[in-house]
Design a protein that fits this description.
The complex is a heterodimer of chains A (about 110) and B (about 110).
Chain A lengths: L4 E3 L2 E4 L5 E6 L6 E7 L6 E7 L2 E5 L6 E5 L4 E6 L8 E11 L2 E6 L3 E5 L1
Chain B lengths: L3 E4 L2 E5 L4 E7 L5 E7 L5 E7 L5 E4 L2 E6 L4 E6 L8 E8 L6 E3 L3 E6 L1
Parallel strand pairs in B: 2-11
Antiparallel strand pairs in B: 1-3, 3-8, 4-5, 4-9, 6-7, 7-8, 9-10, 9-11
Classes of the chains: A mainly beta (about 110), B mainly beta (about 110).
Chain lengths: ~110, ~110
C-alpha cells in the first residue's frame, strides 16, 4: 500500500481534447510529482508541486499543467491532446523519513489518444 | 539515455539463480531509487540509497551504492518467479525528489 491513488485507471480521448487526471496521497506526503511513461520506456518527469506551487518542471510544453490542493490531492491537465500523449501517467508523492525521502508511486492512469 | 544507464536490458534466469542489475549515472547522485514494475502497473518502491557505500536489503533483494563510480547494483538471491518484472533505477541529481529513470531491466524467471 503506497498511499497514493490515481483516477481514472483508463481513459480514451480524441486528438485535440483536454484531459484531467487525479491523484490523492496521504497526510505527510509533502510533494507530488507527475511522470509520463511511454511503452517500453522509463517514466519521464513532467513537473512537481510543493505547497501548492510548481516546484520544478521537465521537458514538457505548457499544455501540460497541474494543481495541488491543501488536502494532498493533485491534478494533471493536458490540453490539445496529441497522439503522442498516449502513455501511462504516474503520480508520485514523497514521504519524509528518518533516512531521507521515500517516493511512492500510484498505479497510474492509462491515457489513449485516438 | 546515456545519463543513466541500466544493464542488462533484459535478463532470463532459472529459478533459484542469483542475479545482478547495474545502474550507472553520468552525474553526481544525491539519491538513487530502485523500483519494480509489472507491465502496465505502478512502480513498487524497493529501496533508496543516499550515502556512498550504503547497502540495504529487503527479503532476498540487496542494493548497494558505489559513490566513487556513481553506480548502484541490485542483487537478487535465489530468484523466484515472483521476482519477474521490470526493474527501474531512478536518479535524484538535485535533492528535489525529481527522478530521472533509466529504461529498465526486464527480468524473467523460469520455474
Amino acid at each position: 500500500e503506497t498511499g497514493v491513488t490515481q483516477s481514472p485507471t483508463h481513459l480514451i480521448k480524441t486528438r485535440g481534447q483536454q484531459v484531467t487526471l487525479r491523484c490523492s496521497s496521504q497526510s505527510g506526503h509533502n510533494t507530488v510529482s507527475w511522470y509520463q511513461q511511454a511503452l517500453g520506456q522509463g517514466p519521464q518527469f513532467i513537473f512537481q508541486y510543493y505547497r501548492e506551487e510548481e516546484n520544478g518542471r521537465g521537458n514538457f510544453p505548457p499544455r501540460f499543467s497541474g494543481l495541488q490542493f491543501p488536502n494532498y490531492s493533485s491534478e494533471l491537465n493536458v490540453n490539445a491532446l496529441e497522439l503522442d500523449d498516449s502513455a501511462l501517467y504516474l503520480c508520485a508523492s514523497s514521504l519524509p523519513t528518518a533516512s531521507g525521502n521515500t517516493i511512492y508511486f500510484g498505479e497510474g492512469s492509462w491515457l489513449t489518444v485516438v | 539515455s546515456q545519463e543513466l544507464e541500466q544493464s542488462p536490458q533484459s535478463l532470463i534466469v532459472q529459478e533459484g539463480k542469483n542475479l545482478t542489475i547495474n545502474c550507472t549515472s553520468s552525474k553526481t547522485l544525491y539519491g538513487l531509487y530502485w523500483y519494480k514494475q509489472k507491465y502496465g502497473e505502478g512502480l513498487i518502491f524497493l529501496m533508496m540509497l543516499q550515502k556512498g557505500g550504503e547497502e540495504k536489503s529487503h527479503e532476498k533483494i540487496t542494493a548497494k551504492l558505489d559513490e566513487k563510480k556513481q553506480q548502484s547494483s541490485l542483487h537478487i538471491t535465489a530468484s523466484q518467479p515472483s521476482h519477474a518484472g521490470i526493474y527501474l533505477c531512478g536518479a535524484d541529481w538535485t535533492g528535489a525528489n525529481n527522478l530521472f529513470f533509466g529504461t529498465g531491466t526486464r527480468l524473467t524467471v523460469i520455474p
